[in-house]
Amino acid sequence: MNSPEQILKNIFGYSSFRSIQKEVITNVLNKNNTIAVMPTGGGKSLCYQIPALMHNGLTLVISPLISLMKDQLDQLHELGIPAGMLNSALSDELYSETVSEVKDGSLKLLYCAPETLFQQRTINLLRESSLSFIAVDEAHCISEWGHDFRPEYRRICEICNLFPNVTCIALTATATSQVRADISSLLNISSDSEFVAPFDRPNLFLDILPKVDPKQQAVEFISLFPEQAGIIYCFSRRQVEDLTKYLLKGGVNARAYHAGLSDKLREENQELFRRDDITVIVATIAFGMGINKPDIRFVLHFDLPQNIESYYQQIGRAGRDGLPAHCRTFFSHGDISKIQFFINQKSDTEKKISYNKLNDLLTYMESRECRRIPLLHYFSDNYDKQNCENCDNCVTPPPPENDYTVDAQKFLSCVMRMEQRYGVTLIIDILRGSKSAKVQQTGGNNISTYGIGSNHSKSEWMTLFRQMCSKGLLNVDREFGSLKITAAGIKVMKKEADFYGYITPATSTYRKKAGPEYGDRKLFEQLRSLRKKIAIEDGVPPYTVFPDKTLMEMSLFLPQTRDSLLMIHGVGLNKLERFGELFLNEINDYLNNNSVTLSPATSSSANDKERAYQRSARLFTEGLSVSALADQESVKASTIIDHLYRWVLEGNPLNTEALLDEFNISDELCLTAHPLFVKHGIKALKPVFEGADGAIDYEILKVLRIWYHAEKIQT
Ligand code: ADP
Ligand code: ZN
Question: Whose alpha carbon is nearest atom 19 of ligand 1?
Answer without folding.
Answer: 43
